[in-house]
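Internal QA ticket QA-208
Title: Verify multi-chain structure generation after dependency bump
Assignee: T.L.

Test input:
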Amino acid sequence: MTRTTRFLRELVLWAGGVLGALCLVSLLAGWLFNVTPLVFVSGSMSPAYQAGALGFAREVPAAGVREGDVVTVSTADGGRVTHRVVAVEHQAGRAVLTLKGDANATIDAQTYVVDAVDRVAFGVPYAGYAVSAATSPVGLVAGGLLVVGSLYLGFRPRPPRRDHRAAPRAARRHALVATGVVAAATLGGAVGMTGQPVSFTSALWSDSATANATITATTPAPAGPSVTCSVVGTNGDWKIRLDWTYGPPDPSTKFIVRSTTGGNAVPGTPVDVAKTLRTWTSTGFTSRTGQIWVVAVEGATEIASAQISYSFGPGSGNGNKLCPVP
Amino acid sequence: MARYDARHRAVRPGWFGRGRTRALLSAGVLVGAGAVATSAYWQDGAQVSGASVEAGAIHIDLATNSRVKPETYTWSAMTGSLSTAGASQARVLRVTNNSAGGLTFGYTVAATATGPLGAALKVTVLRGGTVSGSTCTGGTTVGAANASLNGYSGSPGNLSSTAATPFHDLCVQVSLPAGSGVANGATSTVTFTFSASQVIS
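Actual output:
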């Protein structure tokens, strides 16, 4: 046997032996002491238990749960969540748990009612990655190959010895090894049916953000009347006529027609107009220039329309009588 | 007489020579593998073995914020006035999954609005909607349409940080119906709270 072959043989045998011993010890410990290994699939329990850590949890009755314990609970959809207890309310035989991930800013929205929980005693960083890989389908197949390899290397036929009892003893040995392999796998199957040897738990992250705004209600200023102006009358007697729209409803009090004060005022203004009316005509006039508008009076409040310009020149013709002034 | 060779030790009777102990112990791996493989199919609906570890840190971010914690965003665009004669305003807010590492979350939107004005306001949220004048159009309605703003809640869905578009554009339309009887000058503080929870996919 060459040195490389010897080295590889030793490597496979040691790997198989150590891993196998670890599996047996942990399965036995789990069975005897009711300890469940947990792989932390996500990281909201950082820094105590990072993603990829392997935790070891033991079942405790509800009465034994205290604030500050890290516990695993089952969620409605069948998953497992492992977070720290921030509030516990004990009732007869049960406890209502409020949980929060150490790295989360907010507590979990869901509270849990339990009669017993798995409480995490300690964790080993990074070991969860190894367990996760080993329990994946690829990992299980690789494990199977490792066992086959170890058994072959450990029990393979040796060069014939001078011992004439070697042949039948070798056959018996191979049969026993094969039986042992089947028994080991069956034992594993039986253990698996009684419960999960390894669990996968989520320490689910959560986060929140808020957006604030201030909204103000404003009552818009009511619109005044909408006025149009035209020039009406006959030669020598030219007048301004106003027509407007408003409402509904009518103003509570009245309308007022106002114009520029002083010598340029439209004769008769300011003048009240009944609230149900929407038109007014002045008397005839000449030689005045200014602005005219209509006001709606609501109680004590006057709401004015836009102002309209007029320009009436001297004389009897209407060529120089303008309203509005373009 | 054969020369003494260290490799040829005295033949031991029985089972435990070099390598056999370890080979036998390796069968423990079979026990473990058998247990894991069996339990994976025996459990009903629970997480099966081999779930991949997802390291990372979660961040739900609003508008142009990036990984701010705690995050309180002043939504200036939504601050404004509405006419008591009946009016609405519509604004778009982007919600992004800025988590470190590959991480998917589902989130909810909840709103509160203070005062008598807050009690009168209505809201419609459209995921993927756009602003058209003073209303939101298009997209998918989140929660109830034209719901009371104070007490509104809806779930726009999941966001994955590794997706090509790891965000939702939410068009939020706030309206004051005509005839609400709200006084001129009344104000309301409106708060939208976005809560994200990791989803293991």
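Spot checks passed. Chain A touches chain B through 88 residues (CB under 8 Å).
Status: verified.
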